Amino acid sequence: MxxxxxxxxxxxxxxxxxxVELERVSxxxxxxxxxxxxxxxxxxxxxxxxxxxxxxxxxxxxTVALVGESGCGKSTLARIVVGLVDASGGVVRYDGSPLYGxxxxxxxxxxxxxxxSMQMIFQDPYASLNPRWRVGAIVAEPxxxxxxxxxxxxxxxxxxxxxxxxxxxxxxxxxxxxxxxxGQRQRISIARALATAPALVVCDEPTSxxxxxxxxxxxxxxxxxxxxxxxxxxxxxxxxxxxxxIADRVLVMYLGRIVESxxxxxxFAAARHPYTQMLLDAxxxxxxxxxxxAGDADGTGNGAPRLASELPDPLDVPAGCGFHPRCAFANAxxxxxxxxxxxxxxxxxxxxxxxxxxxxAPRVAIPIAG
Length: 370
Ligand SMILES: Nc1ncnc2c1ncn2[C@@H]1O[C@H](COP(=O)(O)OP(=O)(O)OP(=O)(O)O)[C@@H](O)[C@H]1O
Ligand code: SF4
Ligand SMILES: [Mg+2]
Known about the structure:
By secondary structure, this protein is of the alpha/beta class. The strands form 2 sheets. An 8-stranded mixed sheet has the order 7-8-9-4-10-11-13-12, sandwiched between helices. It has a 5-stranded mixed sheet with strand order 1-3-2-5-6. It starts with a strand and ends in a 14-residue tail after the last helix. The protein binds adenosine-5'-triphosphate, iron/sulfur cluster and magnesium ion. Adenosine-5'-triphosphate binds next to β3 and α2.
């Protein structure tokens, strides 16, 4: 098995204790063909390792952005954090107590407290809202689930407050999701996520389905809520301009592993890992027309970088450093030895032999304005 993948140094000071901490978390999906086919073809079972031994910690009030190409394991990792996917290995801790993982049996009270405290917002607000329910019922559901003894009047009052906090009207609770625009629907998702007063909101591409101007409004709302409520975010995005705008710390993921972890400024001013440098090189130039831009992967202008080479088959991950077939700095060591995250100073960590050997210069230009 590859060595562990530590994105944040272990915290010893109890005051610095992470809100959520992952230790050597992995997830393998069984992608074997059906039994009969396997038997006839004498084919072995196949496992796809979507997350590979990740350690990370999110502190209270911190926005941690997770970036990387499609299929590198971002959503799987996010779903493990909120308990929507079971990890195959490792442990997830909430406020110091083991919550999920192999051999972990958290008590009901801890589970209830942690679930209320960690909510998730998805990319497509329409698909994540029940179209048959009125907005009031959608936002009220987690409030009632957390406290069944609460009176109807008090639930209605809380729903009205939440809708107003996300920029909607209290009267909107009588409408259905289809009566709202995409940006408004994402506001409803945010109101629902806030209903249980969470400490962490996991956001999986929350604005990538929205128009650019609406994206900015939703991002500003999220930044404002963070300020007012001290929220922490785990924020997944393909769009490095959005990450530059919102993150305190950035994690770069490649084939299930964290390959670079740095405070936002350090990452954009001095990216170290060759893969991070490749992602930054592919960021669209704001002066070029969006649909013709090299960074506009699918012509939608959503800001996803388009890279010169393809991610390897996740069922056939290269030995050593998974990035070596695409890397201009690869040498013989890279083909056999998996690099671990090493501290390069100022809370900046990189998993790359060439960086450790001093063969890669930091990328000093900030490619995104601001
Ligand atoms: N339920 C599943 N069964 C089998 N394979 C899965 C499952 N869910 C995810 N995978 C695989 O795990 C890998 C990581 O998927 P994941 O959705 O986490 O990637 P991602 O980084 O979120 O990608 P995107 O940016 O496209 O959303 C991919 O190869 C994907 O095909
Ligand atoms: S370890 Fe080797 S192959 Fe991997 S990124 Fe660094 S130089 Fe490239
Ligand atoms: Mg995803």
